[in-house]
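## tool: complex_structure
## caller: assistant
## args:
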Amino acid sequence: MLEIDNLSVKVNGKNVLEKINMEIKDGEIHALLGPNASGKSTLAYTIMGFPDYKVTEGKIIFNGEDITDLPIEERAKLGIATAFQNPPSIKGLKLSKLLEKISRREVELKENDLLKREILEREINVGFSGGERKISEIIQVISLDPDFVVFDELDAGLDIENLEKLSSLIKSELYNKSALLITHRGRILRFLKPNWVHVLVDGKIVCSSEDWKKIWETIERYGYEKCRECELRSDRP
Amino acid sequence: MKNVGNANYVQIDHEIQTHENEGAIILPSPEAYKRFKWTKEYFEEKPKEGYFIWVRKSSDRPLVTRISISSKNVSQNPINLVVIEENVNAEIYNVCNALKKNLCGNHTGYSKIILKENSRLVMNHFHRWGKEDVVNSGLEISLGKESEISEVYKCLEVPMEMKMENNTYLKEGSSANLVITILAKEGEVKMHDSTFLNGRESRGISRMRMIGDKKSRIVAHSRMIANDAGTGHVDCMGLLLAKDSSINAIPELINNNKDASLTHEASVGKISEEVLNYLRSRGLTEDQAIDLVVAGFLGEEEPITIEGRIVPSKSYM
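## result:
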């Protein structure tokens, strides 16, 4: 589905990512863990093709096609979507109006504490709480019916109950989709159970493993620095 | 004259038709000036044309007025008076437009709106002009105690030159929610909007939404003046779409009462790259993203209700 091959990225003239390798197969969920400012969100924006994120080396292959130089909207049309950590506010534009334009499938909304239908008639991210921002992103991503989703810090700003609700919405509405789950807290791992986990420190992947539980336990016990010498490291990126 | 539907007052060039509405008296202003002596209090001099609407009972049917220029070099000078009686609710749609783009018309209009105690008015005012027209528009709104007005003014096709002056006066417990939306393209717009909080617990909100497209210039003064213990908010937002456009937004707060509270918010700029890239990540091209942001900024298309039918204001015009 998505291959990241030896990818290095500069932002504002500064090297942020160095020689990243990753292969996410059909239906797989990979998690990318790392401390703050390790470059996790940079990878999300680079996969989506944001112009400030300059690829200096390597390439991104999506379903066999080299998309390294494709503009953002072309990547979206191919089936890549991102649920952003800090989406911008758009004054005047209601979420429902955006969904009318972008939807490739209907989203059936079952109201609960987290998900209120009235969010559709509000201006995108204007006065939204942290949880409302997350739900707005997830509704948009679901409506795009993508093949591959990047979830950037989905668990930031959500309490454990709402994180569980959001995770179960993702599991039911994005069933069997490939995904890259970016997080530095790890709480979401036990809800979405990734097939692979990678640890990014200072712009480099220092550890990859299929055993997310052990990786997360190690990080919780010793912090991210321990991942540099992790015995669970695998050959498969 | 063409059949113009169910409007209560229709003026095309200088030719006028009126249709009564339940609970309201609708007359050409000169006739009202002659028939009702009390109107002299509001008309400064005998009007030559324009509408008089006196709403004496609440009605579910909105009132509709239309003043159009259809011939070359017509100069209109409508003087309008709207009076809403105590405890009455009313809804009015006004359309002023040029029926063709090259008529070189002149529309100099002045409207006075009087809301008596505890009355409510929802007013939607749409303008659409040709490039060769010149428009001068004045509006004075006087709110009695505990009365409320919600006024939306929208002009998405400006003439080469347009001047507007609006003054709203609020008494104790009254509230005004005023929204002006302008899309300027190849034209110059000068606006002066002032809201006077002259009573305790009066509440005023003045919002300006301005879009500057090709070869346009907008100068917008928006003042909130507190002479008593009210609350007021001024919100001026401008979007620039073209290099040769400019917006000069001047919000002004004048507080003459220590118990009053006035706030403002203002921004003028282009659509941010962050917003455009975000929308592109949803599969929209840059042009589609700009169109969507602009459409959102201009607000929803307010429909007109006529004889129980909902008609988009655009198609009515």
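## assistant note: Residues 9-268 of chain B form one domain. Helices of chain B lie at 29-35, 273-280, 286-298, 313-316. Handing back to user.
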